[in-house]
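Lecture notes, unit on protein representations.

Consider one protein chain, 138 amino acids long.
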Amino acid sequence: MKLKTGNAYGLNAIMQYVCKQNGYSKKFLGRSPEEKALTRQWLEYNLPFLVENSYPTPTILRELDNALLRFTFFSGNAVTVADFFFYFSLYPVLKRSTCQEKEKYPNLCRWFRLIQEFNELRGSREKILFSRTPLYIY
């Protein structure tokens, strides 16, 4: 990305620049040093799904589900750009998943139900439905 002061390379650098230019750096890049580091980490983690337009494997979905055991959002208890990127990466996966498949990832689905309530983020995409009570026994 070409900037007035030079070039920015990499998703993290570009997202930091865009957020700062629009006054969102404190809100969406993380508030504490830990949240900032987690946001950068999750952006890098998500990059292959964005660049290669591939879908996360069940192993990766379990890893994401486990990451959301402690937090409401990927970088803590406040939404960050990492959540936005994961929303767009996971939308097609969860859209085509059955209720039984979704139940394997309860934390990920809880997070997705919450994040899709941001109308500005969801845009014209339809909401994905989730069961409120477990239907299957594993």
